[in-house]
UniProtKB/TrEMBL annotation:
Keywords: Initiation factor, Protein biosynthesis, Signal. It comes from the Bacteria. Residues 57-90 form the DUF6287 domain. PROSITE patterns: PROKAR_LIPOPROTEIN (PS51257). The keyword Protein biosynthesis applies. The lineage of its organism: Bacteria, Bacillati, Bacillota, Bacilli, Lactobacillales. This is Translation initiation factor 1.
Length: 249
């Protein structure tokens, strides 16, 4: 009789032990699943943050080849004070018209334009870090994006090089927080006028803004007839849809 009770007790202990092990495994599995979910969420959050990091744009010759001028917006000037001004459509001056064709050779985009005064002009667009092979010695500043103009007025011993003008890009201040740009946009209509002057006319309209949120840096998001979108901050800094700063006043 005692043996029967002993066997029964041992059986109950075995069942309780197995049940406890199964519960522990379930708890461990649930904990592991929760941890995996947290890692997944963290990766998603990190990925989203990376996508929204703002960077400074530099000359993109592949985009230029496709007619996208975002990377060269603004004024470019040579040592004589002559200027080339680009908006998102190309050259701004009525007296200058891009030829609309070009080629890339050795990392340089070669195109041209017609100038009402001097005729056909060859225009070389050279990203920073790329050496110029048009002369035996490259006297241009290869640490900067630049353009070289070659026309019938160009002499063999002079390189007519243009660099982008900006008052704030090298100031060392966060571009979005820089209050010394000389631009102060305080309404949608003013932002649209500003977009017309820098980006070119495109029937711009404000589709989003945060001027009523005092905790944020004021901006307006504009969209044009060709669905192009730009974020224009109160201080005049312009960011494209790829989160690149394409213009600093």
């Amino acid at each position: 009789m005692k043996r029967k009770y002993l066997a029964l007790a041992l059986g109950l202990l075995t069942i309780m032990s197995l049940s406890a092990c199964q519960t522990e495994k379930k708890g461990s599995s649930a904990s592991s699943s929760t941890a995996d979910t947290q890692v997944s969420n963290a990766n998603t959050s990190t990925s989203s943050t990376i996508q929204r990091e703002i960077s400074l744009s530099s000359m993109d010759i592949d985009a230029l080849m496709q007619g996208n001028y975002d990377s060269i917006l603004g004024t470019w000037q040579n040592s004589q004070g002559n200027s080339l001004v680009f908006n998102s459509k190309g050259l701004v001056a009525d007296s200058q018209s891009l030829l609309g064709r070009g080629k890339i050779t050795d990392g340089i985009f070669e195109t041209g334009y017609v100038d009402a005064t001097i005729g056909d002009v060859t225009l070389l667009m050279i990203p920073k870090g790329t050496q110029v092979n048009t002369t035996e010695t490259d006297t241009t500043d290869s640490t900067r994006d630049r353009m070289i103009v070659i026309s019938q007025e160009t002499t063999a011993d002079v390189v007519d090089v243009y660099y982008r003008l900006t008052n704030s890009a090298t100031s060392g201040i966060d571009p979005l927080k820089n209050t010394e740009t000389g631009v102060q946009l305080d309404s949608g209509p003013k932002t649209i006028d500003y977009a017309n002057s820098i980006l070119g006319e495109n029937n711009w309209r404000v589709i989003e803004g945060n001027y009523t949120r005092t905790e944020s840096i004021p901006y307006n998001i504009l969209e044009g007839d060709d669905n192009a979108r730009y974020t224009i901050y109160q201080n005049g800094v312009i960011i494209n849809a790829d989160y690149q700063i394409v213009y600093q006043p």
